[in-house]
Design goal:
The chain is of the alpha+beta class. It contains four helices and 15 strands. The strands form two sheets. A twelve-stranded antiparallel beta barrel has the order 4-5-6-7-8-9-10-11-12-13-14-15. It has a three-stranded antiparallel β-sheet with strand order 1-2-3, with no helix packed on it.
């Protein structure tokens, strides 16, 4: 049965309740095309080539509801970061064209924690620091010496399942961040290239440079992300978190805009950059190297 709906075609959480699963809505009915959440959704199925299937009854599941818009996040994306409102993404960390990364505000920060949302303000993931011992927390409380220690951040999807692990070994002069899968296989590395002037990072995988992150000013507020041919594929914009947070906390907010669907491993490295830049530059220095 075909139904009328204003919801655009796209990948949405499975209405059957299958965990960590996306199902394709063709604009009128649910199809049989599914993809695991947390992985790139792949090509949009061609409606004419799609196999015939029995539509899910409208009265049982209904059309996917357009996500409610959070005015604060919308203002952060459109007004502060200057990103125009776009169409719906796939609802995961690897299928959304815009990721909003907001650090949890704390007067005393002993653990890095971030919330990751889509452009509408819907939670699609989180980031938290893992593997911290008591000594490191004490050093973070009384000094900034923790910058010379190893840091590990775990990127999780909306269900709390790990997607990527970021490891920043002890930093002395230049930062290096290792990006790995939950099974321990390495995706690549993000390596700081210089210490003076506009900070640049190389994104390396399998012994080759696949892209770079280039600060657009010496205080490292905004970054352009380019591929191996120096074509811009994404952009990170730091957004204003408010006077109170700026003066009394170490919270930082960023918007990552991905211009088009990227291949792996570049996609995972680009997603990781929105979280790596802050940690690699020692976030409590507020953008100073």
């Amino acid at each position: 049965m075909t139904t009328q709906s204003n919801t655009p075609a796209g990948w949405y959480p499975d209405p059957h309740g299958a965990p960590q699963t996306l199902r394709y809505w063709d604009g009128a009915q649910w199809t049989q095309h599914t993809n695991p959440a947390g992985q790139p959704a792949g090509q949009v199925p061609h409606q004419q080539a799609a196999p015939q299937q029995q539509a899910v009854p409208q009265q049982q599941y209904g059309a996917p509801q357009a996500p409610a818009v959070d005015p604060k996040v919308q203002r952060q994306v459109q007004q502060q970061a200057g990103v125009a409102a776009g169409g719906p993404g796939g609802g995961t960390l690897f299928t959304e064209p815009v990721l909003v990364v907001n650090q949890k505000a704390k007067l005393i920060e002993l653990t890095n924690e971030y919330k990751v949302m889509d452009q509408h303000g819907r939670d699609i993931g989180s980031v938290t620091e893992v593997g911290q011992g008591a000594l490191k927390k004490i050093l973070r409380f009384v000094s900034s010496l923790d910058q010379f220690m190893t840091h590990k951040l775990e990127i999780r999807d909306a269900y709390g399942q790990p997607q990527l692990l970021l490891t920043r070994p002890a930093k002395f002069f230049k930062s290096r961040v290792i990006v790995s899968r939950p099974d321990g296989s390495q995706v690549g590395e993000i390596v700081q290239q210089n210490m003076i002037g506009k900070i640049n990072f190389a994104m390396n995988a399998n012994g080759q440079q696949v892209g770079a992150i280039k600060a657009e000013n010496w205080r490292a507020w905004n970054f352009a992300i380019v591929d191996h041919a120096d074509n811009e594929v994404a952009r990170i914009t730091k957004t204003w978190e408010g006077l109170a947070k700026t003066l009394f906390t170490t919270a930082d907010n960023y918007v990552l805009q991905i211009h088009y669907q990227l291949p792996e491993p570049l996609l995972s490295l680009v997603v990781a950059t929105a979280l790596t830049v802050d940690t690699a530059l020692k976030q409590d220095s507020r953008g100073w190297n």
